[in-house]
Inverse folding.
């Protein structure tokens, strides 16, 4: 059975290698990710957010809603770990 | 794991490293606007420092936080983030719009101040979560 | 701008693949955690070569330090063998 799993693995690898040929080159200024909103952020980011590090400017200001969701997910994960593994001080569970 | 792995060499090394790790974590959080870093990375570094002290010295280190304190910390962090976001609509802007904050600074500096508050909230939340997960992993029930 | 076939990037990609295969094939779980930490550092260096310093920072802090500590703690709570 473990040897049978090699076949779909190889098929998946072939698909991924074939798809990687269609990716834009690293740092390509013509790639779709670099042509829509990125020029606006790069041109106006410093004067609008005061952030020399554009990554922080985008994460904490332009895309703060995403970061809020990410923080909520992290908190939910921590609370879930506490509820599943903890509980010794509350005297519940098996 | 209440006793830790304390040998004299580990104890001395951790005592030497702890203040620098805490200071570097705070620097990464506060200076994230101008250098690589930010709330998430700084929070991870501060949590790594707390976990190091806990691993070396066990529960004997007095300032290791119990899980309830970690929960308070992570909820405080998320609350700071959402609270700063809610200040926008209160002062007549949009949600998470820091430029509406009533500070007497240049517009870019107002947004930078809002981002800094948000980063501090993220750092508190990440520190609390990592501490909490480590603590419940170490202290999990033996019959679980 | 980094060229797409930077030899340094290719070298670290190869090291990442070797590290991933080694982490999967090692029988001792503790050794697997150590190899996984090395894999995290290779991938952090790869991100830094590509110019994504923030991502490299996060990968080095979370992948190499915190994840390794959590894995080691979980191994101490359970058995050490892989099967």
């Amino acid at each position: 059975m473990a040897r049978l799993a090699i076949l779909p693995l190889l098929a998946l690898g072939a698909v991924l290698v074939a798809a990687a040929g269609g990716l834009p080159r690293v740092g390509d200024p013509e790639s779709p990710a670099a042509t829509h909103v990125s020029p606006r952020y790069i041109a106006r980011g410093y004067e609008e957010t005061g952030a020399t590090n554009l990554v922080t400017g985008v994460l904490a200001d332009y895309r703060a809603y995403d970061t809020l969701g990410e923080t909520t997910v992290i908190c939910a994960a921590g609370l879930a770990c506490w509820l599943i593994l903890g509980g010794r001080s509350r005297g519940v569970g098996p | 794991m209440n006793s830790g792995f304390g040998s004299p060499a580990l104890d001395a090394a951790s005592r030497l490293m702890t203040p620098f790790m805490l200071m570097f974590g705070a620097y990464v959080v506060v200076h994230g606007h101008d250098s690589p870093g930010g709330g998430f990375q700084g929070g991870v570094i501060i949590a790594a420092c707390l976990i190091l002290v806990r691993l070396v010295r066990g529960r004997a280190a007095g300032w290791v936080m119990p899980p309830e304190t970690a929960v308070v910390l992570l909820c405080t962090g998320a609350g700071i983030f959402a609270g700063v976001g809610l200040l926008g609509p209160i002062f007549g802007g949009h949600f998470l719009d820091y430029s509406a904050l009533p500070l007497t600074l240049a517009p870019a500096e107002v947004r930078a101040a809002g981002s800094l508050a948000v980063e501090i909230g993220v750092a508190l939340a990440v520190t609390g979560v990592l501490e909490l997960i480590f603590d419940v992993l170490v202290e999990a029930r033996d019959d679980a | 701008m980094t060229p797409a076939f930077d030899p340094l990037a290719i070298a670290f990609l190869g090291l990442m693949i070797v590290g991933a295969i080694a982490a999967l094939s090692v029988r001792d779980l503790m050794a697997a955690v150590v190899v996984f930490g090395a894999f995290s550092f290779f991938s952090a260096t790869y991100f830094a070569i590509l110019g994504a310093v923030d991502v490299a920072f996060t990968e080095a802090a979370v992948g190499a330090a915190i994840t390794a500590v959590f894995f080691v703690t979980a191994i101490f709570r359970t058995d050490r063998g892989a099967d």
